[in-house]
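ok here's the first one, seq then struct tokens
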Amino acid sequence: MSEEKLTTNVLILELSTMIVAIALAFNSQSLNYYTISLPAIIDYIIVNVLVIWFWWRYISDRFKYPIKTNNFPLYDVLLLIIISLLPEILRTQDIFYLTGTLAALAFLWALMLRRIIREYANTIDQQSLVSLRHQINIRSSMGLLFLISFAASFISQIIGRLIFILIIFAIIYSVFIDRFSKSNKRSI
């Protein structure tokens, strides 16, 4: 990897760390605005875990597939901005903003993964290509479901919330089944 590309990748990773640090700082400031109570502390912990989890997933993708071109990493930057907005969006507890943000996050992540496939088209092995395409399909499907919930929240906040809850349960169920099937494959 050339020195210029290495510098670009280091800057992207530093930017992502800085954005997440700012988001976490804003989230910790929220404890000052409210009286400290058990629900406020639990909310603070959950928001931090979610932000760090999204950041970690982004970093993992970028360590595995660093940026190869000299083009501006638009999808990466937009993805990081949305991740940094999560504490504020989660604090509002408005289904309209939450589903819209999660839809944008899922679609941007899918676009970033498509860009990775394009950048690594000549060097990527078949198994990694299948895995990336699977991740693109999952993120696009999640984005579409969150977009449906977003549109439903225009009609009714209650309908939007119900669809959102169903989506979250479906995601948790899917993750549980995926982990369970992988652990069964290892034990066989």
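and now the second one, same deal
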Amino acid sequence: QVQYTCEPEELPSGEVRPRCFPIPRIFRICPDRPAVEITKLIKIDLKTGEIEMPDESSSLLPKGKHWRDIRRYNPEAKAGSSD
């Protein structure tokens, strides 16, 4: 997956336009487990695209949850309310 970060760039004509740069995001996707972003844990060779994951990466990964297991926190809900 690729996201972009953009910043305004002023052209010689005085016109301002966005200039965007890609931000690659790498996810570990295993069967029957939630996807976990590993972008900050890996080393990427920008010339070859080769990715190196450290051996201890499994212990460094945050614990992921399936979307069905996510519960939204609602500070306005009253304790004991069924809403």
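notes on #2: The first strand starts at residue 2 and ends at 10. DSSP finds one helix and six strands in the chain.
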